[in-house]
Amino acid sequence: MPSPAISVAMSVYNGERFLAPAIESVLGQTFGDFEFLILDDGSADGTAAIVRAYAAQDPRIRPIIRENRGLVASLNELLAAARAPIVARMDADDICHPERFARQIGFLAGHPDHGVIGSRTTDIDEQGQSFQLNLADHPLSHDELLHNIATDGPLLAHPTVMFRRDVVLAAGGYHAAFRHCEDYDLWLRLAHRTRMANLPERLLSYRRSPGQVSNRHAVEQCIGVGVSRVAYFERAAGRPDPTETLAVLPPIEALDALFGRAGVAREIRAHTARALLYSEAALGGAAFDLLLRHVADGGRGGELWRTVPRLVRFGKPARAVRLAMALVGSLAA
Question: In what residue span(s) does the Glycosyltransferase 2-like domain sit (predicted)?
Answer without folding.
Answer: 7-168
